[in-house]
Here is the input.
Amino acid sequence: MTSRGIRIALAGLVVLMVLGLVAYGYGHEDDPAPGDAAGSDRVKGTVTVFAAASLTESFTRIGRDFEAANPGVRVTFSFAGSSALATQINQGAPADVFASAAPATMRTVTDAGNADGAPTTFVRNQLVIAVPKGNPKGVKGLADLTRPGVKVALCAEQVPCGAAAEKALDAAAVSLTPVTLEQDVKAALSKVRLGEVDAALVYRTDARAASSDVDGVEFPESVGAVNGYPIVVCRAAPNRAGARAFVAYVLSDSGRAVLDRAGFLGP
Amino acid sequence: MKRRRGTQRVPVGLLLPAALGLAFLVLPLAGLLIRAPWSSLPRRLTEPGVLSALWLSLRTATAATGVCLVLGVPLAWLLARVTFPGRRVVRALVTVPLVLPPVVGGVALLLVFGRRGLIGSWLDGTFGVTLPFTTTGVVFAEAFVAMPFLVIAVEGALRGADARYEEAAATLGASRWTTFTHVTLPLVAPGIAAGAVLCWARALGEFGATITFAGNFPGRTQTMPLAVYLALETDLNAAIVLSLILLTVSVAILAGLRDRWITGP
Here is the structure.
């Protein structure tokens, strides 16, 4: 055998090995978790929650309360833009619960058959204009954002807060040119906190969570751009019992109270 | 001689990990190619946002490489040829952008060059210039992240170069500057070219520092990686197509340059 032949044969072997590893992974992914069907009243293990960035503060709090109420359970969160999370879930990320900041994003998961049952809308959120503490530019409404010398950050239209911002601006018939279209609501807010922009359209809850650095200016047109937040148990949830218990806890009075305090509206 | 070396038996202990390494690097690319929606590719290419993002990416990456060459080659020379106290610390500092998560790099840039930053507030107050959310800001972010690649490559080339040529030039009365421009630079030109290529490639793929420091606005600061990230939010296929366009263009340019400028086996 020539060395070229050996090289080709070895390369082929390596490819087969790698493919074999990949196939092994696939074969095992769909196995039902042992003990999944058995007693679901006793919740244990880790519950992995994928939640919209705007839920960061309230869900972290709810997660701690849930752990306290269910000893032996750990809740881990992945907070990011809803659309990014939906993409990850549709690509097989091991999420137990998905909480999205928009029904449209949730639909990409339910349409792909990756939700267990129908989503429940658990809160609604409304936009405000986040301005630096003390409102140095005197912003009172959407129209003020078009003044020259006022730099505005919006969310990109691909993420829920951007879609809501577009709706609100349309409702107000205000056409403004932002300096940047941020990838999620926290990024837009951080541009205000850093003083790089004079205003950003963010959720009321985000402005409230950052109230040490920013003020939230309410505006009437936000009523026409209210976002519903749906939550659902994922079909491939590794810890289905834990996932159901967590969703029930979010919908319970204790969960409700945390979300109210954060500034969310009722469903 | 060369021919013989090529046909010698390759030790399996080297070949196997090499092949695995190659597969590891190439398989994700294959994944992109397999998943790519080929039928819609021409339509996506002609979408207005795509070409402007691609053009912006190529322009800013090239400008950033220019900045890195002007500042990075002298820095590499300093590190390789001059003994000064704290040289090791300086060398470590040069590699900081490699270790720093790019998003943190973007925040750090904002703290210095932002509207309220140390230098940025002065720029704004004196000249009315603000860098964030501008194309210049994109170049800043890319140069910050990519410069270490150039400095490390050029410093390595300088250390590997035969210092006797420089000594000979000095003995013949050439000043240090003349020696640098007439002897050192031609000597390490391949190293500089290799460093510039690495630097350009890194700048082209830059995402975190760019979106944090320069924001995201189509035509002004939305480079291809940013467009890919946002496409990923809603449309996986669009993101794959955009990535492939970026890959194809960059690989074509790099392959073209390699034959032309970087001579070697």
Observations:
- The domain at 45-124+228-262 of chain A is CATH 3.40.190.10 (D-Maltodextrin-Binding Protein; domain 2).
- Residues 3-29 of chain A form the longest helix (27 residues).
- Chain A has two domains: 45-124+228-262, 127-225.
- Chain A touches chain B at residues 3, 6-7, 10-11, 14-15, 18, 81, 83-84, 87, 90, 151, 153, 156, 158-159, 178-183, 187, 191, 194-196 (CB under 8 Å).
